[in-house]
Specification:
Layout: H1 3-29, H2 34-115
Helix pairs in contact: 1-2
Organism: Chryseobacterium soli
InterPro entries: Desiccation-related_membrane, YtxH
Pfam families: YtxH (PF12732)
């Protein structure tokens, strides 16, 4: 997970925790029966839990998408580099073989001249 995504997740968690604390404090100080207040707290807690699950699912999907994109980009780049290296190898291999053949011909010619 990137630093930006970690910061976003941290901010989201802080906002949810703050909202939950605010709701709970508001309900505790409201002039209602304890049973009714506990019921509201429970309902609000369930709502917040559902919201957190939804946000987690969204963030999780974004992370999976980003991983897929990065993975694809890496594979394409690695393939491109491999082809470039292979093409360079083939090019220089042919040049070396050609030059080696020229050197062999020159050496054979010198040897023939020395034999005469």
């Amino acid at each position: 997970m990137s630093r930006k995504e970690k910061n976003t997740a941290g901010i989201l968690a802080g906002l949810l925790a703050g909202a939950a604390a605010g709701v709970i404090l508001g309900m505790l100080y409201a002039p209602e029966e304890g049973k009714e207040t506990r019921k509201k707290i429970k309902n609000k807690a369930n709502d917040l839990k559902d919201q957190a699950k939804d946000k987690y699912g969204e963030v999780s999907e974004k992370v999976k998408d980003q991983y897929g994109n990065i993975s694809s980009t890496f594979k394409e780049t690695a393939s491109s580099v491999a082809h470039t290296v292979k093409d360079g190898y083939d090019k220089y291999k042919d040049q070396i073989v050609s030059k080696t053949a020229d050197v062999v011909k020159d050496v054979e010619a010198e040897l023939n001249d020395l034999k005469k």
